[in-house]
Amino acid sequence: MSGEMRESEIGVVMADDHQIFLEGLSRLLAADERLCVLGTCNSGDDLIELAKAHEPDVAIIDISMPGPGPAGIVQQLDALDMGIKTLALTMHLEPSFARDLLSHGMDGYVVKEAAFDELVEAILTIQGGDQYLCRTLIDVLPSESALTDRERECLSGAARGLTAKMIARELDITERTVRFHFANACRKLGVQRVTEAVAAALKQRLIAA
Prior knowledge:
The protein is built from ten helices and six strands. By secondary structure, it is of the alpha/beta class.
């Protein structure tokens, strides 16, 4: 399935090894005027080729399919230097899966039991530069009590309007590490987006205004 994208639309490619599910989801996404499904495939290797051919804004990735694992897919998409955002769409609720993917730079994580509207919300959120954790994931991930110093530093940078790349440069850590700290902060504060984590941290005076 492939479409012609208008300038205002978000271009999406998807990979899932369940063809019926993939076709159904493609039709649902294509019906949203904000989105354009540029192509679908059934393996990680094919997803990389789709990305090279179509230069999408967002890649939706099933984490259990043939080809390179999700961390490898994220790494290869990052290497294309196209600014492609990555969204895991999975049946896995295990905290270890989520932590591993977020630590490897995945921009969003949504479980397949989520409502379709939440998937669209996730796409719009990560395309806007924020990270997205689905509501179900927040419920199942255990939360430690306090934010670490690094988590507060990353949120403080975001509060000043810095991007993850700028924060990484300022703190002399990798951008992937910044995103991992963002994900942990979101989980601890019980929110889905970095902007919400910043607002919560400011409200609770965990970081300075």
